[in-house]
Amino acid sequence: MLQEDQPKQIWVHDINKKRNELGEFHTIFHDLTEDEKYFRMSYAKFCELLLAIEPRIEKKNTNFREAITPRVVVVVAK
What is the mean pLDDT of the chain? Predict the structure, then answer.
């Protein structure tokens, strides 16, 4: 039980709550897919890869936080 003098713990930081609006994926990914030199594979190959691994990496949303979509995970992975 938390005592009154202890700060409340944060499950999801405020900056991550705005990820769907302000994150790089949601703001510039569409523009970058039009530039074939930016990615190491074509957009068609990316979609093919995503379809192949999506069921294995997909996470479920919880009451505490929204899961990161497989599409975002694949784009961010290096």
Answer: 80
